[in-house]
Write a structure and sequence with these properties.
The complex is a heterodimer of chains A (732) and B (663). Helix content of chain A is 37%, strand content 15%. Chain A has 4 domains: 109 residues, Carbon monoxide dehydrogenase alpha subunit. Chain M, domain 1 (Helicase, Ruva Protein, domain 3), CATH 1.10.8.190; 182 residues, Rossmann fold; 140 residues, Bifunctional carbon monoxide dehydrogenase/acetyl-coa synthase(codh/acs), Chain M, domain 3 (2-Layer Sandwich), CATH 3.30.1650; 222 residues, Bifunctional carbon monoxide dehydrogenase/acetyl-coa synthase(codh/acs), Chain M, domain 5, CATH 3.40.1470. With 732 residues, chain A is α/β, with parallel strands linked by helices. Chain A has 24 helices and 23 strands. Helix content of chain B is 49%, strand content 10%. In chain B, the strands form 4 sheets. Chain B has a 6-stranded parallel sheet with strand order 12-11-10-13-14-15, sandwiched between helices. In chain B, strands 5-4-6-7-8 form a 5-stranded parallel sheet, with helices on both faces. In chain B, strand 14, helix 26 and strand 15 form a beta-alpha-beta unit. The chains are: A alpha/beta (732), B alpha/beta (663).
């Protein structure tokens, strides 16, 4: 019964607080109270303590203060008979445990004990999860490709069961964190023994070998409300409600439970995250702290995944093509090394291309997959490499020529999500590999076609009524049809080039992030893609056709209020309504006045550098200092959460080379600093844009981290290089 | 030989009663047998508001045809009698509240040095409600002074509204506004109510009763609420404590001192003083092993909730306590003090000490209380008890039965217990009601009464309600009745609660009956109901909640005031016993059907406990139906899952901040 759980949670908290105190004393003895600490790449100090109390722990001395807060949440154990109420006390104890674990882990970092590693295999656990990873996951958190988060604690009864559970979660697109152990055995070790690829790419993230390491997952979760939710540090009620309503995390406990698991679980229950165990445990069914049950059990391992998903209230719809291997975004990140490869197509090794073309309904037989080429079966079975012309014909009453590229771009995900299938590139620069394991599991060439027909129909349901795939494997055919495809690509590019903000009368909104960032709205125009980089205007248009009530809505431009700054009556009206008045007006082409808001998963941040009369751009993941005096993680803190912050803006990478980039402020000539990474990845398009703007050498005049990480050095560099921004009108 | 009549449902009480009968001692139980209620007055048909009467409005067709000398009809007379009770009840709670407010002021101004502001957090909460500045270095006593002064305005304000008006849900306020019953101030409403019932003033029964409701609201949302708040500020907001109940709490070898009545200030000081080493040494010097403090009636509830002082029980136990022969002194103040105790005490060694300047009694020692020298007076009382210990005689019905209790549930703790410091709220309770785990909530309150087997109706209803998955909150002598029955334990839920309620109690670790405090603490139920409305998922006002108030053994006019403020706030209320307006169909209809239509609350009188139960469940189930909640079925509950896909998650904000609940 619940009293057993409460007692364990309360006594576990006492133990964890003692452990944290010992570890902290050790750290202070070695380093002194003034010793400064921050977890790798986070702007949020010790995130749990910071979010709950608003207290930024910066030093070991601060940790002492924070630990005192944990101590104040400790309680006496309920008595055997005539007990006093214990639920509130148990939940407080759970929070005390999270504080204690956070301090314990921070001290372990200081003492060089984290991230932990496995002495037998040398496997290094992930440890603390950075802000960058959190933001990288951005779009997946909201578009349904990562609908939930599982923290698996302990070890399955055997290796095969561990693999089975993890695969099932992967197929349901759930991100998996692993921690804890049962007598030294753990799911991490079980998966390692079974050669399951671990890491962010496969969505299986081992955090550490102890239950306490689960805190890293909770620290990751709590940053969602700080980053995307715009909740202020110390607004604990706001944070916890956000976590309960929007962060669909849950715990699965495999093996027996000890008081450390119970008390950590009580901490998680504060956040609305329930736990399901695979053993005979007492349960807590009444709801209200969690949305559904707080603690439940499922002894049947074949049902436990379904059970946790129900207990957390998750709806997962997964479309699986008829192929003999697992399928889902979790398999997208798998690598296929050369020695594991069975066969490959393209990749400069053989001629290959992929091409989606629109046809009339009557010209297509839905679901048909044809392979054209002499003796293709025998050639496939031999393995190695083959040419591949991959032609996908689609038809539908609502299909438009413009959507060809949108559908074609999905080929990458469609193929890649198959376990043992790998894809990269696009158009006539594509590259596909099939692993030996996949081939042994029965994957044939036809399956690539079936994946395309199934997934295209699924993803573009109301646009596409029929899909058929034709694969050419004779080099002669491939080369011949490739020419036709190239002509189509060219035509598309020309059409795309002619698409300007002026040439259309409708923009699209993107509200996908509202599941996490409820007050942010993206306005996507032909010349400004979404700040996450994942959605452009055509995507928005297609998405609206697919689901007229979905996350992308048409926004009538209306009348122009300000040509230079890009302000439209229709956009303002739309924003006023969709943000409940929080955003009154938006200027699309300036950073200085009513700029676009951000959800938090922007690819880059543009920030004003007043001394240089220009702006700097830093991309997510860059860990160095910037001339704005802040690292990306700190800068990001002042941009997200749906608020307009003049001088700061989140953008998608490709917007930098758009004609509309800060057009009202002077365009790309305002860029005075940009990371090397951005410079390199955008070089060609950027130079083209610069030439059009009359500054063909602009890229060389822009500083990067190799010459300046502060404004003084930046100014020095700019004046030497003769950067145009210095002589432009003042920005402010 | 005639069949023995059971006079109290409590075995301990019954034993003493029987012993007393054998000893020829007369108690309220005997008097209740001998003295039948006057059938005319009992049903509200007697008017003695002027000296042309008393007029008896009786006979066939009395409703239509009977007239008093002045021409008053039966409905007028019944309504007038009713609202006079409201005014009297309101004056009692509120005069108690006034004393509390003056004490707070004296403490803030440094004049009552024996007290401190014990619960600064609660002070700030009240200051926040009143819009008084606090924190940022402002001295606590300054805040307390402003709070006291502002609350004192609630007594004598001539125009405007009571301070706490906005604590009620908006919709509830709208109803009051529509029917013109927002109280201006306590004293003004009491005076006006009494004025209206004077001969030749207000004769329209509906209008009279609306005036009565306004007066009652001044009791609930001003007087009582002020008293609860200030008591929490001065002595601490209650949280659960473990203690004991029943007449067996007295100790053979210790000085037994009983605090009885309603105002907590002196009792709090006595709690402090009995722990003083000098006092204990003094007791030992008189041959006692120590000092055993016990409570009775609502003073008992106050010190039980905050200090775990055991309670000897409610109203009808006061004579019985003395009859144990173990009570060395009983200190009383105001309300529900039977004059019979002085007479009873004279047959034992017990000293009765009156302490209120408002209330004296022949045969008692008077030691007048003054909050400015509280400890001095408290020590005097304790010494008097100690001095009397050697006078104790063997005579008495020494009783050892007692029951453990868990008591001390404030609104603040109830929120805490449902989610702790970080997640405390009414969400789990609202969820549990929505899911059908908890069928509804009943406030089981009011007096205990010697006209029925005393505390027996409380016991019957408490047991039946929890079996039916109804969560009970209890106050006043309702709490004492449940406590002395052994019902206020967490084990009670495991053994007797319905399966849904049991799950909830088990999850939290609570008894199925939550002891909320004294009768003045019925105001806590108003606060709780308002918070449940604000939490969402049930009714968005107090009216329409699957909640009922029951006072099965009421006898005090205070109970009538309480019943009426609940009715006006939107709670259907059922009182036991014969109806004091039973003579008039019209008045009965106004107080049930008409009030329900206007306020979603009502006041019924129903002597049959089985019918009380049925009516309460019917109210609860029909409220569930109106709210479109899952139909209650015992043992079948649970949240219907609404699994969230991405589109649903984007809609959370647009749902208007409504709780994310899976129903």
């Amino acid at each position: 019964m619940s009293k057993i759980i409460a007692s364990a949670a309360i006594s576990g908290a006492h133990k964890l607080v003692r452990n944290a105190e010992e570890m902290l004393t050790k750290a202070i003895t070695g380093k002194g109270e003034a010793y400064q600490f921050e977890f790798t790449d986070t702007a949020f100090y010790l995130p749990m303590i910071y979010a709950m109390t608003g207290f930024p722990v910066k030093t070991l001395g601060d940790m002492k203060i924070a630990l005192q807060m944990a101590k104040e949440m400790l309680h006496e154990l309920p008595e055997e008979h005539l007990w006093k109420p214990y639920l509130g006390e148990a939940l407080d104890s759970g929070m005390a445990s999270l504080f204690a674990e956070e301090i314990w882990l921070a001290c372990r970092y200081i003492l060089g004990m984290e991230p932990d590693s496995d002495p037998e295999t040398g496997y290094v656990y992930n440890g603390f999860i950075t802000d960058t990873i959190q933001r990288n996951l951005g779009i997946q958190l909201v578009d349904g490709t990562m609908p939930g988060f599982a923290a698996i604690i302990g070890a399955a009864p055997d290796d095969d069961t561990a693999v089975k559970i993890v695969r099932e979660l992967q197929e349901k697109n759930i991100l998996i964190f692993l921690s804890g152990n049962v007598n030294g055995n753990s799911v991490t070790k079980q998966l390692l023994r079974k050669d399951v690829e671990l890491g962010w790419d496969t969505r299986i993230v081992p955090l550490g070998p102890e239950t306490e390491h689960t805190l890293y997952a909770l620290d990751w979760a709590i940053r969602a409300s700080l980053i995307f939710g715009g909740k202020k540090p110390g607004d604990y009620a706001g944070h916890l409600k956000y976590q309960k309503d929007r962060v669909f995390a849950f715990a699965m406990v495999l093996g027996p439970l000890d008081e450390i698991i119970w008390t950590t679980g009580a901490g998680a229950i504060n956040m609305g995250f329930p736990a399901v165990a695979d053993s005979e445990i007492p349960v807590i069914h009444p709801t209200g702290v969690c949305i559904y049950e707080e603690v439940d059990k499922e002894l049947d391992h074949s049902k436990i995944v379904q059970k946790v998903i129900e207990v957390r209230g998750l709806k997962i719809t997964v479309e699986k093509p008829p192929i003999p291997v697992a399928y889902g975004p979790a398999f997208e990140g798998e690598r296929i090394r050369k020695e594991d490869m069975f066969i490959e197509f393209g990749g400069q090794r053989t001629p290959a291309f992929e091409w989606v073309r629109m046809r009339e309904l009557e010209d297509i037989e839905d679901g048909k997959v044809t392979i054209i080429g002499a003796d293709w079966q025998a050639r496939y079975e031999k393995g190695g490499s083959m040419p591949l012309g991959f032609v996908v014909d689609v038809a539908g009453r609502k299909m438009q020529k413009d959507f060809e590229s949108v559908i074609e771009r999905k080929t990458h995900h469609n193929i890649n999500e198959g376990q043992g299938l790998w894809h990269m590139g696009q158009r006539d620069l594509n590259w596909i590999r099939i692993s030996k394991a996949a081939q042994q599991a029965g994957v044939t060439l036809e399956h690539l076609g079936h994946i395309m027909t199934t997934m295209t129909r699924h993803r573009f349901q109301s646009i596409v009524d029929k899909v058929q795939v034709t694969m050419y494997v004779d080099e002669k055919d491939v080369l011949e049809i490739q020419d036709q495809a190239r002509a189509a690509y060219k035509e598309r590019d020309q059409r795309l080039g002619s698409l300007t903000d002026e040439s259309v009368d409708t923009f699209y909104s993107c509200l996908l992030c509202q599941s996490f960032a409820p007050s942010h709205v993206c306005i996507i125009t032909p010349e400004r893609l979404g700040l996450c980089g994942a959605y452009n205007w055509l995507d928005g248009k297609a998405a609206y056709e697919i689901d007229p009530t979905g996350g992308n809505q048409p926004v009538q431009k209306g009348g122009v209020l300000d040509t230079r700054y890009g302000r439209y009556t229709g956009v303002d009206d739309y924003l006023k309504k969709s943000t409940g008045g929080q955003v009154e007006t938006l200027n699309l082409y300036t950073i200085m006045e009513n700029p676009m808001t951000s959800c938090g998963c922007f690819e880059c941040i543009v920030a004003i550098v007043p001394e240089a009369n220009g702006v700097m751009i830093v991309q997510r993941g860059h860990q160095g200092m910037t001339p704005a005096g802040m690292k990306f993680s700190t800068l990001a803190g002042s941009v997200g959460g749906g608020a307009q912050t003049p001088g700061f803006m989140g953008i998608g990478r490709n917007f930098i080379a758009s004609k509309k980039f800060l057009a009202g402020d002077g365009g790309i000539k305002r860029i005075v600093w940009m990371t090397k990474n951005l410079k390199e990845s955008l070089r060609d398009v950027f130079n083209q844009r610069a030439a059009e703007a009359g500054e063909p050498d602009l890229l060389d005049k822009i500083a990067d981290e190799s010459v300046a990480e502060d404004s003084e050095k930046l100014l020095e560099f700019l004046s030497q290089a003769g950067h145009p921004a210095l002589s432009m009108d003042p920005m402010i | 030989m005639e069949k023995k009549i059971r006079k109290s449902a409590s075995d301990a009480a019954q034993k003493i009663i029987e012993w007393g009968e054998a000893e020829g001692l007369q108690t309220c139980f005997d008097r209740a047998q001998k003295l039948k209620p006057c059938p005319i007055g009992e049903t509200g048909a007697c008017c003695k508001n002027c000296h042309m009467g008393p007029c008896r409005l009786v006979g066939a067709d009395a409703e239509e045809k009977a007239r008093g000398i002045c021409g008053a009809t039966l409905p007028t007379v019944a309504a007038r009698n009713m609202v006079r009770m409201i005014a009297a009840g309101t004056s009692a709670h509120s005069d108690h509240a006034r004393d509390m407010a003056f004490t707070l002021l004296a403490v803030a101004e440094g004049e009552a040095k024996d007290f401190q502001i014990k619960d600064v957090r609660k002070l700030y909460k009240v200051a926040g409600i009143l819009g008084i500045e606090f924190g940022n270095g402002r001295p606590v006593n300054d805040v307390a002074r402003d709070v006291a002064k502002m609350l004192l305005d609630d007594f004598g304000r001539q125009k405007g509204f009571i301070n706490y008006l906005n604590r009620a849900p908006g919709k509830t306020q709208e109803r009051w506004k529509k029917w013109g019953i927002i109280p201006r101030s306590i004293d003004r409403e009491v005076v006006e109510t009494l004025h209206r019932t004077n001969v030749g003033v207000d004769h329209d029964p509906d209008h009279l009763l609306l005036g009565g409701l306004r007066c009652a609201l001044a009791d609930g949302w001003a007087g009582s609420m002020i008293s609860t708040d200030i008591t929490d500020i001065l002595f601490g907001t209650p949280k659960p404590v473990k203690s004991e109940a029943s007449l067996g709490i007295f100790k053979e070898d210790e000085v037994n001192l009983v605090v009885h009545g309603h105002e907590p200030t002196l009792a709090e000081t006595i709690v402090d003083v009995v722990g003083e080493p000098e006092m204990i040494a003094y007791a030992k010097s008189k041959g006692a092993k120590g000092i055993n403090l016990g409570g009775m009636c609502c003073t008992a509830n106050e010190v039980l909730m905050r200090h775990g002082i055991p309670t000897a029980g409610g109203f009808t136990n006061q004579e019985l306590g003395i009859m144990t022969g173990l009570v060395d002194a009983i200190s009383v103040d105001v309300q529900c003090i039977m004059p019979a105790i002085a007479e009873m005490a004279s047959k034992f060694h017990t000293k009765v000490i009156t302490t209120s300047p408002k209330a004296m009694m022949k045969g008692a020692v008077h030691i007048e209380y003054d909050e400015h020298k509280s400890k001095e007076i408290a020590r005097k009382i304790v010494k008097l008890a100690i001095d009397n210990y050697p006078n104790r005689k063997a005579k008495g019905s020494h009783i050892t039965d007692k029951f453990p209790v868990i008591a001390g549930f404030s609104d603040e703790y109830i929120q805490y217990m449902q989610g702790g410091r970080w997640r405390g709220s009414y969400r789990p309770l609202n969820d549990a009601i929505m899911a059908g785990r908890v069928r509804g909530v009943v406030g089981l309150a009011g007096c205990d009464n010697p006209r029925v087997p005393s505390t027996g109706l409380h016991r019957y209803l408490a047991m039946e309600l929890i079996r039916n998955d109804v969560l009970i909150v209890s106050t006043g002598c309702g709490s004492a009745a449940c406590g002395t029955a052994g019902y206020l334990t967490p084990e009670m839920a495991l053994e007797n609660a319905g399966p849904g309620l049991r799950e909830v109690c088990e999850a939290i670790g609570i008894p199925p009956i939550l002891h909320l405090g004294a009768c003045v603490d019925n105001s806590r139920i108003l606060t709780i109901a308002s918070a449940m409305a604000a939490e969402g998922g049930l009714s968005d006002e107090i009216g329409g909640m699957p909640a009922v108030g029951i006072a099965p053994e009421w006898m005090s006019e205070k109970a009538i005031a309480i019943g009426c403020y609940f009715a006006a706030s939107g709670v259907p209320v059922i009182f036991g016993g014969e109806s004091p307006v039973g003579a008039s169909k019209e008045v009965t209809k106004i107080m049930t059907e008409v009030w329900f239509e206007r306020f979603k609350g009502s006041l019924h009188f129903e002597p049959d406990p089985e019918k009380i139960l049925a009516l309460a469940l019917q109210y609860i189930d029909s409220a569930r139906g109106a709210l479109k909640l899952r139909k209650y079925e015992p043992g079948r509950f649970g949240t219907e899952r609404v699994l969230m896909d991405m589109a649903a998650r984007r809609e959370i904000e647009r749902a208007g901040g409504k709780p994310h609940i899976g129903i």
